Write a sequence for this structure.
């Protein structure tokens, strides 16, 4: 059987690294992308040593030139990408009206424009070959609001809205677009939030972690492997227009076709 290739962004740690490992186990050739070259190369070696196939790619999804370079590198090798997982993201916080133009623009650039630009770059070829699997890692913040992260919520709502429209437009084309929307996940991003809140509130790390876990309907943090498993399911079956929420209790399909 032909090996399918997939680009996973934000694969240097956390959810993206778990997705890269899981897709490699599922038989995909994984291009593991992020800004930190040493980390994506190490992940590719680790995947290789456990029998999978992967290669590190340096990519800043918030930078048009970096996106263009990465795309050119893949296209130069006559490679047709079969899958794309837009996972890279950032989540700086700020109270309403204090985010400032630069922070809002950066959040939109990384969390929304990056995924959109990568989809636009690879979609024509996916449509030509009548095969493509796109999964966008949004967030529960793409479904509801949270205090102090209005710009993050806006960027994730944008990604969910774009994914819904893309799925509608691509129905029947062989290319599927789906979204996963996890609540708080046990990852370095959440660890940063813990440290930020510890600094602000003087509460202990354990208290803050328990507080964040309690915000999830399931009362515990979602694991990176749960998110990766949901992505693999969506990719394997080419589920177009599916929106999957992971809340620490279950994996709920909110929308499907
Ligand atoms: N953690 C949560 O609770 C949670 C919940 C719901 C949704 N999510 C979403 O899940 C995704 C992954 O989150 P995570 O928790 O795994 O975060 P993380 O631990 O902070 O990892 C983020 C990943 O994105 C990469 N990245 C950041 N900025 C980038 C850029 N400009 N270009 C390319 N790569 C970039 C980072 O690598 P480099 O620094 O090496 O570039 C890293 O690999 C994000 O989209 C996040 O919004 C997270």
């Amino acid at each position: 059987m032909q090996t399918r290739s997939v680009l996973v962004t934000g694969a240097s740690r956390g959810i993206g690294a778990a997705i890269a490992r899981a897709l490699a186990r599922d038989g995909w050739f994984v291009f593991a992308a992020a800004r930190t070259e040493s980390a994506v190369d190490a992940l590719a070696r680790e995947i290789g040593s456990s029998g999978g196939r992967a290669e590190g790619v340096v990519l800043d999804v918030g930078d048009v030139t970096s996106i263009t370079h990465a795309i050119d590198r893949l296209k130069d090798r006559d490679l047709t990408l079969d899958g794309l997982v837009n996972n890279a993201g950032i989540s700086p916080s700020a109270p309403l009206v204090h985010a400032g133009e630069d922070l809002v623009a950066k959040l939109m650039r990384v969390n929304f424009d990056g995924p959109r630009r990568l989809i636009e770059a690879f979609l024509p070829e996916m449509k030509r070959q009548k095969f493509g699997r796109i999964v966008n890692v949004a967030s529960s913040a793409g479904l509801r609001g949270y205090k102090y992260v209005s710009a993050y919520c806006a960027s994730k709502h944008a990604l969910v809205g774009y994914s819904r429209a893309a799925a509608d437009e691509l129905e029947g084309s062989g290319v599927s677009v789906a979204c996963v929307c996890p609540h708080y996940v046990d990852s370095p991003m959440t660890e940063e939030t813990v440290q930020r809140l510890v600094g602000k509130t003087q509460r202990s790390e354990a208290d803050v972690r328990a507080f964040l876990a309690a915000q999830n309907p399931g009362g515990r943090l979602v694991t990176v492997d749960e998110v990766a498993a949901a992505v693999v399911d969506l990719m394997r079956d080419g589920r177009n227009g599916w929106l999957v929420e992971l809340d620490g209790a279950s994996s709920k399909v909110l929308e499907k076709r």
Q: What stands out?
A: The chain has one domain: 5-183+224-255. DSSP finds eight helices and eight strands in the chain. The two ends are 28 Å apart (CA to CA). Residues 79 and 237 are 22 Å apart (CA to CA).
